[in-house]
């Protein structure tokens, strides 16, 4: 008898599709087993969501917010259990998994505020009438989540969508079904009405059945650029459907003449290696001056990175980072490094897969200054490519030499260097003297080019969860004092 892993019309039921597992990448143990939702279950969930939507959208906003607040209370009560699940299923260090849960809880107040500020109601007086700007939910929306933040990133779509009055069909990453299941159980405990949130677990077949179903009004996606492009093509010719895409990056971090070498090294490591490099905002390319200052930073960076503690997520002495999501992902990084070496890259610190059967890798740093041109790819792990430069303009041009545009940063003492950089760099997140990871939920979050489609998430998620309606309204019909020329009544 298969586990009841799908949540459809307020009921838990077993998936009728193919079986799949979730594996703890720190030790290879199976942490979750179930079956995918098949196409009929996807259809049933959509029908239930369509039914639930009208009612839910008509609930007073304050009552919808009460349910969302009750979800926040559930999250707070079960915060440690959620953090443990995240650590177990993703290999993320427990300290960091706890910060993910805190981000989920923090999202509630931010989303309520954003909903009011960005999609609230505006009333303007006009002669004999009132003009209104209001916002309506789209209807039934699908949310697709990635594995690297299995709680926080889907939550960043789900919470604003629910506040706005949509019904949500949540399709989590097939690598993190257990965190998704726990999240939806908290929504259930919070009293969300049947059909307002559904959970459709499964692999790509489930994702395709959901994304291609005519019964959805929109899809909010966070994941890889390849999948996002596939969805974009699938949505072509359907202008009435809203598609929000948050995808990867090939993010540059430039360093120009900084006095505080330790602080620079800290910000580079936080940018490149946090979460074992599995953040979409992670620095993939580091541009360092060919100068004594650049040499000193590089030497310290190699030494500090060599000392980074990589260990089991629950280790008493907590690691800086734990395991990557899978052994396959770890081996993918080893292969990426070998490809760059073959193209002429010189390893300054070798990335190594340290434990067969797990996702543990050490950080890698590779000098690619004299390598053959490299493909413009996001390597989603702790491997940092270093470019030494002599000309700042050329470094900025190379930093922009990517089809992506998620995050970028400059470490530099001189404010005019930042102004110069800011005017030229192309990215949705541009930082100065701070790491380029760790973006705030209280700001818009999204990229340009292959990184997104101008529907920024986080604080601006409210924008894609509702559409504006302009109305001119009067209590009674009245004849204008003056009629237009040529008209008699
Ligand atoms: N910009 C952002 O906000 C952001 C945040 C986190 C992660 N990411 C990116 O996500 C990637 C890592 O996450 P991932 O590997 O889980 O992403 P992914 O694209 O493999 O999967 C994301 C979701 O899409 C589903 N999916 C995959 N193929 C599909 C298809 N053909 N049709 C329908 N659904 C499909 C998956 O099952 C999953 O639910 C990285 O590239 C990272 O940069 C971006
Ligand atoms: O992996 C991608 C997300 C990385 C993370 N960004 C955010 O958390 C954005 C804020 C939000 O969505 O609320 C980061 O920048 O580290």
Automatic annotation (TrEMBL):
Keywords, comma-separated and alphabetical: Arginine metabolism, NAD, Oxidoreductase
Binding, NAD(+): 223-228
GO biological process, one term: L-arginine catabolic process to succinate
Domain Aldehyde dehydrogenase per the UniProt entry, residue ranges: 12-463
SUPFAM superfamilies per record: ALDH-like (SSF53720)
Keyword ATP-binding: no
InterPro entries attached to this UniProt entry: Ald_DH/histidinol_DH, Ald_DH_C, Ald_DH_CS_CYS, Ald_DH_CS_GLU, Ald_DH_N, Aldehyde_DH_dom, SuccinylGlu_semiald_DH_AstD
CDD domains: ALDH_SGSD_AstD
Keyword NAD (UniProt): yes
Catalyzed reactions: N-succinyl-L-glutamate 5-semialdehyde + NAD(+) + H2O = N-succinyl-L-glutamate + NADH + 2 H(+)
Molecular functions per Gene Ontology: succinylglutamate-semialdehyde dehydrogenase activity
Pfam family, one: Aldedh
Residues of the active site: 246, 280
Stored Gene3D superfamilies: Aldehyde Dehydrogenase, Chain A, domain 1, Aldehyde Dehydrogenase, Chain A, domain 2
Pathway: Amino-acid degradation; L-arginine degradation via AST pathway; L-glutamate and succinate from L-arginine: step 4/5
Role, per record: Catalyzes the NAD-dependent reduction of succinylglutamate semialdehyde into succinylglutamate.
HAMAP family assigned: Aldedh_AstD
Family designation: Belongs to the aldehyde dehydrogenase family. AstD subfamily.
NCBIfam families tied to this protein: arg_catab_astD (TIGR03240), PRK09457.1 (NF006992)
PANTHER family in alphabetical order: ALDEHYDE DEHYDROGENASE-RELATED
Protein name (Swiss-Prot/TrEMBL): N-succinylglutamate 5-semialdehyde dehydrogenase
Organism, as annotated: Rheinheimera riviphila
């Amino acid at each position: 008898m298969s586990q009841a892993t799908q949540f459809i019309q307020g009921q838990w039921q077993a998936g009728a599709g193919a079986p799949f597992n979730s594996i703890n990448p720190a030790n290879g143990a199976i942490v979750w087993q179930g079956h995918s939702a098949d196409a009929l279950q996807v259809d049933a969930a959509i029908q239930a969501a369509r039914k639930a939507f009208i009612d839910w959208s008509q609930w007073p906003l304050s009552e919808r917010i009460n349910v969302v607040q009750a979800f926040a209370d559930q999250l707070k009560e079960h915060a440690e259990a959620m953090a443990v699940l995240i650590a177990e299923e993703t290999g993320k260090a427990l300290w960091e998994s706890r910060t993910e849960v805190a981000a989920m809880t923090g999202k509630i107040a931010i989303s309520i505020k954003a909903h009011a500020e960005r999609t609230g109601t505006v009333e303007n007086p006009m002669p004999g009438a009132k003009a209104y700007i209001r916002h309506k939910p789209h209807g039934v929306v699908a949310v697709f989540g990635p594995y690297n933040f299995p709680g926080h990133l889907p939550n960043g779509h789900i919470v604003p969508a629910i506040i706005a009055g949509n019904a949500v069909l949540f399709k989590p990453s097939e690598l993190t079904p257990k965190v998704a299941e726990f999240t939806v159980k908290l929504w259930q405990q919070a009293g969300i009405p049947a059909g307002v949130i559904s959970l459709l677990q499964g692999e790509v077949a489930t994702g395709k059945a959901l994304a291609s179903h005519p019964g959805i009004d929109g899809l909010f996606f966070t994941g890889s650029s390849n999948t996002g492009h596939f969805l974009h093509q699938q949505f072509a010719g359907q202008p009435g459907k809203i598609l929000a895409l948050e995808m990867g990056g090939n993010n540059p971090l430039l360093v120009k003449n900084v006095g505080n070498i330790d602080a620079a090294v800290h910000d580079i490591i936080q940018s490149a290696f946090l979460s074992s490099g599995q953040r979409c905002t992670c620095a993939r390319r580091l541009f360092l001056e060919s100068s004594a200052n650049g040499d000193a930073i590089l030497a310290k960076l190699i030494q500090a990175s060599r000392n980074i503690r990589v260990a089991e997520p629950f280790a008493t002495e907590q690691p800086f980072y734990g395991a990557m999501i899978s052994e396959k992902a770890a081996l993918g990084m080893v292969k990426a490094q070998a490809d760059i070496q073959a193209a002429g890259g010189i390893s300054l610190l070798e990335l190594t897969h340290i434990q067969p059967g797990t996702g543990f890798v050490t950080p890698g740093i590779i000098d690619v200054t004299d390598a053959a041109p490299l493909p413009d790819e996001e390597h989603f792990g702790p491997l940092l490519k270093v470019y030494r430069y002599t000309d700042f303009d050329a470094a900025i041009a190379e930093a922009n030499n990517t089809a992506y545009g998620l995050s970028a940063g400059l470490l530099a003492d001189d404010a005019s260097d930042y102004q110069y950089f800011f005017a030229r760099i192309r990215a949705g997140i541009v930082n100065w003297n701070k790491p380029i990871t760790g973006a705030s939920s209280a700001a818009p979050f999204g990229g340009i080019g292959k990184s997104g489609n101008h529907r920024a998430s986080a604080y601006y998620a409210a924008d894609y969860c509702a559409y504006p309606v302009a109305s001119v309204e009067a209590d009674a019909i009245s004849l204008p004092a003056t009629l237009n020329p040529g008209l008699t009544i």
